[in-house]
Amino acid sequence: xxxxxxxxxxxxxxxxxxxxxxxxxxxxxxxxxxxxxxxxxxxxxxxxxxxxxxxxxxxxxxxxxxxxxxxxxxxxxxxxxxxxxxxxxxxxxxxxxxxxxxxxxxxxxxxxxxxxxxxxxxxxxxxxxxxxxxxxxxxxxxxxxxxxxxxxxxxxxxxxxxxxxxxxxxxxxxxxxxxxxxxxxxxxxxxxxxxxxxxxxxxxxxxxxxxxxxxxxxxxxxxxxxxxxxxxxxxxxxxxxxxxxxxxxxxxxxxxxxxxxxxxxxxxxxxxxxxxxxxxxxxxxxxxxxxxxxxxxxxxxxxxxxxxxxxxxxxxxxxxxxxxxxxxxxxxxxxxxxxxxxxxxxxxxxxxxxxxxxxxxxxxxxxxxxxxxxxxxxxxxxxxxxxxxxxxxxxxxxxxxxxxxxxxxxxxxxxxxxxxxxxxxxxxxxxxxx
Length: 434
Ligand code: ATP
Prior knowledge:
The chain is of the alpha+beta class.
């Protein structure tokens, strides 16, 4: 293989190099022409003084359509006209792929393109450095999550995504015809990660897809998202879980601040590190806060987008971008959450970030009889959950856990206005391609 250089590792000490990339721009000034060649790390300037390079080469390079993919071999020269301090004077080139004309959308043109057009041409949209940087950062978020979890003794797991029963309510289940039997796409790994507590793993985590048939068009819901789930045994209460989440979040945000500077600069963002401990608000307090902010919510209502935003504004003003909301009424929570005896409350919480829910979690009901009772109260048939319930029949430790939407987390870290901005190929009610 030839020895290639890219814009990330070229310097004036290099004599003769081969570089590869996309022709971002061609400027022909007559006696001299320039190509801006873009690769993963940035751009390079190819400079073509007409008199100094072979005429055929000048013509062929100068007429290349934008976004064509080429390799250029040439001499590296020092230059004070370019950001990298070097330019390349070509001696030969290879055309790997000539781009069609016109382009479906521009890569560097300063025109506002609709989100739909961008998503329809996502391969092109992702050529923009500031868009691709989001996914470089997302990759780091996932790595940092895994790092924090493994450091804390969690085992990385993968659970089935084709399942026989839903855990998060029937309204958002996607049906699948499984060789003539009814099946669904998993809404979360909830039932499986709990079963693994009975198996004695003690601490597990999964970063995997979750599917919800959300028939609404909001900027925070998609039909396929990546969920970072954790589950841990031997807890004394939900505080053990919130403490673990806090540790992971802090590790992720500090890690990004330390390692992602280049990508953050590309987007023009900084990562804030919220104060610890993250404040804990009760659901009742939140209802009071949103009422005072002028929203007519009543006890028992979902805080909703508006309510969450109102609370987020108040908390951010105090420097608290991340905060937990606890003591939700049990009615609002799924069957697997433990109820607070003698009250209408549950041992559950949400984690909100800059005015949006990014996680739900809580202590689970590990007692078989109570769990079956919860199912019946919610109108579910315990028979549909037989194999899950078996894990509770034969010895289950006290446990709890959480699910964090990775897409929402990334969107919030970077203040992106729509969760779709943090997903390579988002799926929603109207989008199945690309
Ligand atoms: P919401 O009330 O915002 O619809 P939820 O209460 O249905 O969320 P949970 O079932 O608690 O969500 O899921 C845990 C986390 O998974 C959420 O906090 C969110 O980060 C993420 N999540 C859930 N549904 C979606 C979705 N449709 N699109 C993107 N992320 C989601």
